[in-house]
């Protein structure tokens, strides 16, 4: 009897550990964020590049796909690549002109010139934008976003958005 109880407790603990370590990925959300099975992260040269790479790695890990960095000289090229279906995700400075071409999640970082937000190509599942906003809030609340911003060297940036 005691041996059976120990085996039951051990198997229950293993099952709980397996559930805790395996992310629950919604296949529809996964396809909306990474339709090729790889998260293609558009990274423009400049200060937000390190932040974009870090966010891409976190998002890829969350949805259970590998990240692939696609490098560009300018943010406008990232937007063009999103419109052409060659990039799935980036972190871009927001604003009305870009909002016509990409869908922005809730702003992550306030800059002197505006804000940075995670972005995906226009027209993907709206749940994907909501997921990115939620991810941003989790990163902000647990301190990872502030650490990423500091590592990226974004001077004068704040992760508190009002």
Automatic annotation (TrEMBL):
Keyword tags: Signal
Statement: the UniProt record of this protein carries the keyword Signal: yes
Metal-binding among keywords: no
Signal peptide limits: 1-24
InterPro entries: TAT_signal
Protein name as it appears in the record: Transporter substrate-binding domain-containing protein
Originating species: Ramlibacter algicola
